[in-house]
Protein 1
Amino acid sequence: AQTVTQSQPEMSVQEAETVTLSCTYDTSESDYYLFWYKQPPSRQMILVIRQEAYKQQNATENRFSVNFQKAAKSFSLKISDSQLGDAAMYFCAYRRGQAAGNKLTFGGGTRVLVKP
Amino acid sequence: EAGVAQSPRYKIIEKRQSVAFWCNPISGHATLYWYQQILGQGPKLLIQFQNNGVVDDSQLPKDRFSAERLKGVDSTLKIQPAKLEDSAVYLCASSSLVGDGSSGANVLTFGAGSRLTVL
């Protein structure tokens, strides 16, 4: 079974600075997708960024970027120019294969605190 | 487009009582998921439907939890009888069978969740 591990329960960052969240995963599959979701206090999970395993280029979405190390099974998220609105729980998630409808497996989450 | 609708937002019950949660996915989304998120943990899949059929219910405690999606649209998750350890947020998500954009990776869209407290 696939597992996703987030080793940092909480990270603190000063507004406008950069923070990096770690994620490792375990799988025997070669075809999969990785995601970072944000969950603010409102509880709604919001997709931040996704990465296809077959792509070597790291995904970026505005201030969010990932460092995907397939051999090491590592998938970290970098938040640049942190804003107060970035404060939330962040979850790393894994999805197997190309077939539509495959489930997401989540890590335990990292709480991000942004200091003004 | 309208998002994933869930109700109720909050529910407080005593142990051994029953409770039901409702979810209406994004229009046209064939796949619907129910996740359980215990405080301080990541969401865990309880059950996954594709149209009105069950794809995965391996982690659903079937002695007390049941779910249905009779017409392949909205879905109900029921707990009977509830236990203290069922206190959690129940998240519903949906996705299309058609991959989006160039990646082919269908994306799950989540509702705001239903928070259950069992006393």
Protein 2
Amino acid sequence: NAGVTQTPKFQVLKTGQSMTLQCAQDMNHEYMSWYRQDPGMGLRLIHYSVGAGITDQGEVPNGYNVSRSTTEDFPLRLLSAAPSQTSVYFCASSPFDSPLHFGNGTRLTVT
Amino acid sequence: AQSVTQLDSQVPVFEEAPVELRCNYSSSVSVYLFWYVQYPNQGLQLLLKYLSGSTLVESINGFEAEFNKSQTSFHLRKPSVHISDTAEYFCAVGLIQGAQKLVFGQGTRLTINP
């Protein structure tokens, strides 16, 4: 099993550009989520989904959009990138009431 | 709301020495508790979890953590560390219903010196 796969691994954007971070899981997990990791701040929840067609905001949702059209995929969209969005982004999935499985992350730099 | 405080941002120790990584949490309701480990340039991996039952939980690689409800702590310990334990360690809490919406601490970077 591939587990949780994130693409790309690295990305550099200019301020104002848009992009989509991809996340796919092959474990048929209902729950998927996106976190950002910043030095000294741990991981903070951006958006999450409890199943296809259902999404909700986490702690830091501003500037990000998500959708969940299938169980497997949970892309994160930046509509107009800002330097404050420079971070490492992690996607995670799990069955309900079970620990999260994390992807290897996408390192994003916005100049 | 829940919060997690990891009391040390960096912990340097010598190989084969014992180590304790401290974690305190705040919550008005019962929670699950987790320790995750992040090796360089990788995602987070579950190290151990406390859901219910025995307050002392152990991992397969020699770490253990004890849930202390009165002190709202979940400190991570290992009696003898190895170079391969060098990583960043994150403590996290999750509600019993909706445990996946984890709140993480700031992380503790464990550095093992030979």
